[in-house]
Design brief:
Helices cover about 80% and strands about 0% of the residues. The chain is mainly alpha-helical. It starts with 10 loop residues before the first helix and ends with a helix.
Amino acid sequence: MELMADNNPGPKKQWASAEKMIMLGIALPAATFAGWILGGLLDRHFHTDWMSIAGLIFGTVAGFTQFIVGALRAMKSGE
């Protein structure tokens, strides 16, 4: 006798899917904030005024990249 596959995922799988979606929502602001802080520290160290803006832009690009990669993975796995 063959068992039929259950289409209802278990609670652990649902929590894992929710965690992945939460990670997508946190990745962009966290990367942007980290880039801004690191740029500000470099500004203070090198006595410049432009590195915080460059860090902000770099962090935003890194956050969007992480967001897009994560979203594509989620779409590919069907979550």
